[in-house]
TrEMBL record, chain A:
This is Exosome complex component RRP41. CDD domains: RNase_PH_RRP41 (cd11370). It comes from Oryzias latipes. InterPro entries: ExoRNase_PH_dom1 (IPR001247), ExoRNase_PH_dom2 (IPR015847), ExoRNase_PH_dom2_sf (IPR036345), PNPase/RNase_PH_dom_sf (IPR027408), Ribosomal_Su5_D2-typ_SF (IPR020568), RNase_PH (IPR050080). Gene3D superfamilies: GHMP Kinase, N-terminal domain. The keyword Glycosyltransferase does not apply. One of its GO terms (cellular component) is nucleolus. Keywords: Acetylation, Cytoplasm, Exosome, Nucleus, RNA-binding, rRNA processing.
From TrEMBL, chain B:
Keywords: Cytoplasm, Exosome, Nucleus, Phosphoprotein, RNA-binding, rRNA processing. Pfam families: ECR1_N (PF14382), EXOSC1 (PF10447). NCBIfam families: PRK09521.1 (NF034126). This is Exosome complex component CSL4. PANTHER family: 3'-5' EXORIBONUCLEASE CSL4-RELATED (PTHR12686), EXOSOME COMPLEX COMPONENT CSL4 (PTHR12686:SF8). InterPro entries: Csl4, EXOSC1_C, Exosome_cplx_N_dom, NA-bd_OB-fold, S1_domain. SUPFAM superfamilies: Nucleic acid-binding proteins, Ribosomal L27 protein-like. Its main location: cytoplasm. GO terms for biological process: rRNA processing. It is found in: Cytoplasm; Nucleus, Nucleolus. The lineage of its organism: Eukaryota, Metazoa, Chordata, Craniata, Vertebrata. GO terms for molecular function: RNA binding. It comes from Oryzias latipes. Belongs to the CSL4 family. The keyword Phosphoprotein applies.
Length: 244, 195
């Protein structure tokens, strides 16, 4: 079968990275003044914008209110110009709803919702350019936005998409690798405690390879967490010098 | 008491034997971890263990809690209750408004059944109230003004739209037309009155 080799003999991938190498992560916090928290994150060519509002009173259906904690409302959408072909339906389609639900589950595990009974926290994420690993980039951007909003969390939530090809785990897949028939697994991790918030996979993988793949994903997530940590600390430093 | 170092969510600060939990931190397996990105603050309070908390530059959104004194604006009245928008919790303004309800029986402490809502509040009045409940599925925050220091603080008269002056606990007078209107007036502490 002619085509691009996902992993060459020398161990290089399609974009020249090694198997365990992550894409370049660049992020900025506090990009919007009117939202409670916001962040912009780029991981390679995938760009995501996350905005957080809250905690505030529950809007709309008051029956959804929980008496002892806050509800987290997530919305995931892709810009119409984010993919190679113009997207006809940016939100409301099955994939977006599923992603929104996964984001909600991920953040319910990390945010200390017991501190805000009967209120709601909104997390909106928009993908501006999609080049693979959409879920992971969303989670990373949303983590920074939640920290920017000052909402208490147990730990960072870092996510990474990994794939398995030729007995090797590839960390941080790009679009070409995802659509090239790699079994991809997305994992969201709380790095300090090593707790997994969410694992998502809908491909076929032999049981024997699962442990290796999850190990590779956890290592990649810890790498992402180091970068996010730097971004947060730098943002705090800048904020404090302005105040002084 | 000066702020020491930066910390991020998930940073292990100290053991629970060394400090007491403050705000912005949580407890897990006997250790205290930070839950916010900010500065670590350790306050010494007498012989007890120091209180450790994490503070941010900007204040987090405060939620009205049971027992808090809130400043609200009346939006509509009914013979049974008054609906208000909660604007301030204590002295912190809220970014988003919360809705509250003052029931007829919570307007004052005495003669609760003889209360007439239109003689206690009017739409547009600024009221000091206390939160008695976070509310259940149906209702909003429940507030009470059944104390001397709670009630209407600012009201505008019907005719002249001028700010009225309180004359007694149940009446206010317009300075331009000298007409008296009924409100449940708050007794403002002497130290808050300008000389």
């Amino acid at each position: 079968m002619a085509g691009l080799e996902l992993l060459s003999d020398q161990g290089y991938r399609l974009d020249g990275r090694k198997a365990t190498e992550l894409r370049k992560v660049q992020a900025r916090m506090g990009v919007f003044a009117q939202a409670d928290g916001s962040a912009y994150l780029e991981q390679g060519n995938t760009k995501a914008l996350a905005v957080v509002y809250g905690p505030h009173e529950i809007r709309g259906a008051r029956s959804r209110a929980l008496h002892d904690r806050a509800i987290i409302n997530c919305q995931y959408s892709m810009a119409t110009f984010s993919t190679a072909e113009r997207k006809r339906r940016p939100h409301g389609d099955r994939k977006s709803t599923e992603m929104s639900l996964h984001l909600k589950q991920t953040f319910e595990a990390a945010v200390l919702t017991q501190l805000y009974p009967r209120s709601q926290i909104d997390i909106y994420v928009k993908i501006l350019q999609s080049d693979g690993g959409n879920y992971s980039v969303c989670v990373n951007a949303a983590t920074l936005a939640v920290i920017d909003a000052g909402i208490p969390m147990r730990d960072y939530v870092c996510a990474c998409t990994v794939g398995f090809v030729d007995e090797t785990s590839l960390a941080d897949l790009c679009y070409a690798e995802e659509s090239g028939g790699v079994s991809s697994l997305a994992l969201a991790l709380l790095p300090r405690g090593g707790q997994i918030a969410l694992v998502q996979m809908d491909a076929r993988l032999h049981q024997d390879h699962l442990d290796t793949l999850i190990e590779a994903a956890m290592t990649a997530c810890k790498g992402v967490s180091k970068v996010l940590d730097q971004v947060v600390r730098q943002h705090l430093q800048e904020g404090s010098t302005l105040r002084e | 008491m000066s702020p020491t170092r930066l910390c991020v969510p998930g940073d292990k600060l100290c053991s629970v034997e060394d400090c007491i939990l403050g705000t912005g931190v949580y407890l897990r397996h006997g250790y205290i971890y930070s839950s916010l990105a900010g500065y670590v603050l350790k306050k010494n309070e007498g012989e007890q263990l120091p209180v450790i908390s994490v503070v941010r530059e900007t204040e987090v959104q405060l939620l009205p809690d049971v027992g808090a004194i809130v400043t609200c604006k009346v939006t509509s009245i009914n013979s049974r209750f008054a609906k208000v928008h909660i604007l301030y919790v204590g002295s912190t303004p809220l970014k988003d408004l919360f809705r509250g309800t003052i029931r007829k029986e919570d307007v004052r402490a005495t003669e609760k059944d003889k209360v007439e809502m239109h003689r206690s509040f009017r739409p547009g009045d600024i009221v000091l109230a206390k939160v008695i409940s976070l509310g259940d599925v149906q209702s909003n925050y429940l507030l009470t003004t059944a104390e001397n220091e709670l009630g209407v603080v600012v009201a505008h008269s019907d005719a002249a739209r001028a700010q009225m002056v309180p004359i007694s606990w149940c009446e206010m007078q317009c300075p331009q037309t000298h007409t008296k209107e009924f409100r449940k007036v708050a007794r403002v502490q002497p130290e808050y009155l300008e000389a």
